[in-house]
Amino acid sequence: MSKIAKITGQKIVNCLGDNTIEVLVELDNGLSERASVPTGALRGKYEAVSVHDLDKAIQNIATVITENLRGRDPVDQSEVDKILIALDNTPNKSNLGANTLLGVSLAVARVASLSEGIQLYQHIANLFGQKNPIKRLPDPMLNLINGGAHADNNLSFQDFMIVPVGENLDFAGKLEKGVKIFHTLKELLHNMGQKVNVGDEGGFAPELYSNEEAMELLVSAITKSGYIPKEEVSIAIDVAADGIPDLSIATYPQTPFEYYEKIVKNYPIKILEDPYKQDDWTSWATLNQKLGAMISIVGDDLFATNLTRLEKGIEIKVANSISVKPNQIGTLSETLNVIRKAQEANFEVQISHRAGETEDTFIADLAVATQAKYIKAGAPNRGERVAKYDQLLRIEKELKGD
Prior knowledge:
Order of helices and strands: EEEHHHHEEHHEHHEHEHEHEHEH
Shape: globular
CATH class of the largest domain: Alpha Beta
Strand content: 15-25%
Number of domains: 2
Oligomer: single chain
Radius of gyration: 21 Å
Number of helices: 13
Domain Enolase C-terminal TIM barrel: 134-401
Function: Catalyzes the reversible conversion of 2-phosphoglycerate (2-PG) into phosphoenolpyruvate (PEP). It is essential for the degradation of carbohydrates via glycolysis.
Strand order of the largest sheet: 4-5-6-7-8-9-10-11
Subcellular location: Cytoplasm; Secreted; Cell surface
Pathway: Carbohydrate degradation; glycolysis; pyruvate from D-glyceraldehyde 3-phosphate: step 4/5
Pfam families: Enolase_C, Enolase_N
CATH topology of the largest domain: TIM Barrel
Structural class: alpha/beta
CATH architecture of the largest domain: Alpha-Beta Barrel
């Protein structure tokens, strides 16, 4: 059985031009694999802490982490992650850093799959305890209009996405729909005299009058592309309320709840993410009670991929869906525990990218392995976003036996 021999880290640059960390794990049989860690445009206060002194992080990887993982079986992900968590020994990963731990954890999983001679998604499925054959891929959530912290424009809501649907349509077909709508939207914006530069996550960043104008544009792009809104393509909105100083101003003259009720009635909205701030449990619970039967109410900053917060949210019924971001918690095992708990509570799961992405495609395999309902990886534009979708196309081809 091959064992971990050496672990090294290095600085690389993410899509925002910021430094992040990449980890290389080498086994004693000569096999090696890498993983890199994304960063968020905003960090919720309940996310695990990333260490910004990457030189120190790299030193810690080469010394304390390597010393404690050398000779370990890379297939035993649970034991590897337990050691990493114990070495950090803080509740929020503030000692070694969630970015440091995650890079090691994901690279170990990747080299373990290589050592076993199986695909990464199958290795993760085994770790997850996935007993059923993998038959479906997640539905893509394609971010076509960027606002909030992801764009330099006047839109207060952060993401305006489309979700191609259809039980008889494979992932390739859904992505093809999304790409067509993306280009139709570009043409619509061009005809309006809008610039078609893109934001951090690959979507367009136009100067519009309101959040609702962005929704109107998505409906127009869907229709002009030849699809039926809601029946064939739905809309998802990430409000990212914690990035809005005063939510009541953003929804004026309606209250936030009245505004959400209105747009769900007037637009083909399927998913509403982070509609309230992360500590406003009461408003979350009210919204979920009133609208949860009609749409997905998604907790991102609310849950921060944290098992304790998710358990509280399940108990008081604040949402029916969760956005999972591995770098919010710090290890693969902890990420899988959160997904498992969410699915046991009949929550929909979306596996999500971050604003500061790398070309690493790990989340694509993670979404397939856990049979997540959705993957949120940005627009079908910009290499670091498209890389995830292209990986899903490869996986689908393999699963079909082509």
